[in-house]
């Protein structure tokens, strides 16, 4: 028969080494299990001993049982304490701790450039005027002197809902709407907005894009006034070292008509790879408003005259930030957008 003091030593050693509740459970069964626990067996075997030995062995076996129970309870408490301490360490939630900062977005680079253009022109007294993106054939073409069958219509081929209703191909129709709404010059407006054309997407064009149109109607305006306005706008946006030039061109709604260019910011106009050795970058069209266009807007060309311009916002943004593919502006790729 086992000696209780040996059993205690063995059991206490095993308990001290146990590191999980499961191990303690096994030890409990080994020593105190109701059927085959070693202490239990000791106690049930006492009946077979000579009466003189019974009392002494009974007492020491019971002491062993209590000692093992106490050691088990202690070790359980220790393990539970360690478990809680561990949770406190790794899973603690401090409700007073400031949360992680929210990822803040910012306005899209095209919106930034549009707002800069608006701010610069507003400082010259221009008001922002908006028009519909679904436009009638009359405003998009007729009123701008582009009659049915005019070859220039090809440049502004758009998407039609009906023969009379289309997605506007430029912001120029807002010139007419603004003249009709405001009636009395002086009129100084700019009109930013989305336009659409039947173009396949490529590095320099998309079937949807944005323009900013400007219109001034007043007495005795000149090409010099127009050029000065464009120069002020370009220098405000790109820096005072930039120059503007106008080249003769053709638009049905202006006479005379021009394209306007800005000097290349990389070579300063000397010619380099990014301006294809021209020294100039094309920005948009402009000109003195055609008398018939004034008439279509309800304004008497005998009393008033005007100038107008239009250019793409994407192109302005690309020139400003050295972007070589217009599609990047619409792909919503954060790696691109976060740079601005
Ligand atoms: N509407 C023209 C276009 O989309 C741009 C333009 C040229 C607008 C000359 C004007 C202008 O106001 O005077 O290509």
Summarize this structure briefly.
The chain is α+β, with helices and mostly antiparallel strands. Helix content is 41%, strand content 19%.
Overview features:
340 residues; BirA Bifunctional Protein, domain 2; seven-stranded mixed β-sheet; three-stranded antiparallel β-sheet; 11 helices; 41% helix; rod-shaped
Main sheet strand line-up:
1-5-6-10-9-8-7
Query: In percent, how much strand structure appears in the residues?
Result: 15-25%
CATH topology of the largest domain: BirA Bifunctional Protein, domain 2
CATH architecture of the largest domain: 2-Layer Sandwich
The topology string of helices and strands comes to: HHHHHEEHEEHEEHEEEHEHH
Rg of Cα set? 44 Å
Structural class: alpha+beta
User: Given the structure, what is the number of helices?
Assistant: 11
| Beta-strand segment tally | 10
The percent range for helix content is: 40-55%
Q: Indicate the mean pLDDT.
A: 93
Major sheet description? 7 strands, mixed
Corresponding CATH superfamily of the largest domain: Bira Bifunctional Protein, Domain 2
The domain count comes to 2
Give the bound compounds.
3,4-dihydroxyphenylalanine
Describe this structure in words.
This protein has helices at 4-17, 21-32, 38-45, 51-91, 109-122, 137-140, 173-182, 223-238, 291-296, 313-321, 334-337; strands spanning 127-128, 134-136, 160-162, 165-167, 187-196, 208-218, 244-249, 254-263, 280-289, 305-312. The protein has 340 residues and is α+β, with helices and mostly antiparallel strands. The protein folds into 2 domains: 4-90; 109-337, 2-Layer Sandwich (BirA Bifunctional Protein, domain 2), CATH 3.30.930. Strands 1-5-6-10-9-8-7 form a 7-stranded mixed sheet, sandwiched between helices. Strand 3 (160-162) and strand 4 (165-167) form a beta hairpin. The protein starts with a helix and ends with a helix. The relative contact order is 0.10. Bound molecules: 3,4-dihydroxyphenylalanine (DAH).
């Amino acid at each position: 028969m086992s000696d209780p003091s040996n059993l205690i030593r063995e059991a206490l050693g095993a308990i001290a080494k146990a590191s999980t509740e499961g191990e303690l459970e096994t030890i409990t069964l080994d020593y105190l299990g109701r059927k085959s626990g070693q202490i239990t067996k000791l106690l049930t075997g006492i009946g077979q001993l000579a009466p003189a030995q019974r009392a002494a062995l009974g007492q020491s076996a019971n002491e062993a049982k209590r000692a093992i129970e106490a050691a088990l309870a202690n070790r359980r408490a220790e393990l539970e304490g360690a478990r809680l301490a561990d949770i406190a360490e790794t899973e603690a939630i401090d409700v007073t701790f400031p949360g992680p900062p929210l990822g803040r977005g910012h306005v899209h680079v095209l919106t930034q450039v549009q707002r800069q253009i608006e701010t610069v022109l507003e400082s010259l007294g221009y008001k922002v005027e908006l028009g519909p993106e679904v436009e009638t054939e009359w405003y998009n073409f007729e009123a701008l002197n582009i009659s049915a069958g005019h070859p220039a219509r090809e440049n502004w081929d758009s998407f039609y809902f009906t023969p009379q209703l289309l997605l506007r191909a430029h912001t120029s129709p807002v010139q007419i709407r603004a003249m009709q709404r405001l009636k009395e010059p002086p009129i100084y407006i700019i009109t930013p907005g989305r336009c659409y054309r039947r173009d396949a997407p490529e590095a320099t064009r998309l079937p949807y894009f944005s323009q900013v149109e400007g219109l001034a109607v007043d007495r005795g305006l000149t090409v010099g006034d127009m050029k000065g306005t464009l120069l002020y706008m370009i220098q405000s946006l790109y820096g005072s070292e930039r120059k503007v030039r106008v080249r003769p061109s053709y638009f049905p709604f202006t006479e005379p008509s021009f394209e306007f260019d800005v000097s290349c910011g990389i070579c300063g106009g000397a010619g380099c790879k990014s301006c294809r050795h021209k020294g100039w970058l094309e920005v948009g069209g402009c000109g003195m408003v055609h008398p018939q266009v004034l008439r279509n807007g309800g304004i008497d060309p005998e009393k008033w005259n005007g100038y107008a311009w239009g250019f793409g916002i994407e192109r302005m943004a690309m020139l400003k930030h050295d972007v070589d593919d217009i599609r990047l502006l619409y792909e919503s790729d954060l790696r691109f957008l976060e740079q601005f």
